[in-house]
Amino acid sequence: MKEIVLETKIKVYPEAELPEVFAGLAQSAREAADRAYAPYSCFHVGAAVLLENGEIITGNNQENAAYPSGLCAERVALFYAGAQYPEIAVKALAIAAETEGKRVKLITPCGACRQVLLETEARSKQSIQILLCGADEAYLIDSASALLPLCFDGKNLPS
Ligand code: THU
């Protein structure tokens, strides 16, 4: 028997210490959360995607009375970026959330969004930095693959 230990490096920034580019991205994610359509969960999530050309694409959760028909903020933003700018790599993605008018302590992406982040990384062969914006600090992770160890990806499929 052998044991495998998986490690994830996370940089934790007090909000006031966030480098300027991430502070801006966090702000865009928060503003996007304000525009979320979340009448069922009342959980408002915003995502901001920074493209390699400097453009910022935002998305927010879009819910539906038929619950599974809705989509998370991250995928709304990533799919829009992929549809509009298929040749431009995603450099970073920030997410933020609020409920009952208050910032959520720490928002972390769901499994399906992690899987889409992973595919986006694979598509451009570049790591995506992920910023999880909390109430008063933010977690910075160097790549989507760090958030999804032992993942299923295209390498598992026959070529
Ligand atoms: N949600 C997101 O938009 N992103 C996440 O990372 C987690 C969950 C949304 C989906 C649903 O509209 C609401 O939050 C409650 O799950």
Write out key terms for the chains shown.
159 residues, binds tetrahydrodeoxyuridine, 3 helices, alpha+beta, 7-stranded mixed beta sheet, single chain
Write a brief structural summary.
With 159 residues, the chain is an alpha+beta fold.
Q: Would you write up a description of this structure?
A:
- The protein has 159 residues and is α+β, with helices and mostly antiparallel strands.
- Helix content is 26%, strand content 26%.
- The protein has helices spanning 20-34, 73-84, 111-124, and strands at 10-14, 43-51, 56-60, 90-99, 102-103, 129-133, 137-141.
- Strands 1, 2, 3, 4, 5, 6 and 7 form a 7-stranded mixed beta sheet that branches.
- A hairpin with a 4-residue loop joins strand 2 and strand 3.
- Helix 2 (73-84) runs parallel beside helix 3 (111-124).
- It is globular, with a radius of gyration of 16 Å.
- The mean pLDDT is 97.
- The structure holds tetrahydrodeoxyuridine (THU).
- Tetrahydrodeoxyuridine binds next to strand 2 and helix 2.
Range of strand content: 25-35%
Provide the structure class: alpha+beta
Helix content: 25-40%
The chain-level mean pLDDT equals 97
Identify every distinct bound molecule in the structure, by name, code or SMILES.
tetrahydrodeoxyuridine
Low-pLDDT residue intervals, each spanning 5 or more residues: none
How large is the radius of gyration?
16 Å
Largest sheet: 7 strands, mixed
Give a count of the beta strands, DSSP E runs of length 2 or more. Answer: 7
Terminal Cα span: 32 Å
- The SSE string, one letter per element, is EHEEHEEHEE
Total DSSP helices: 3
Shape: globular
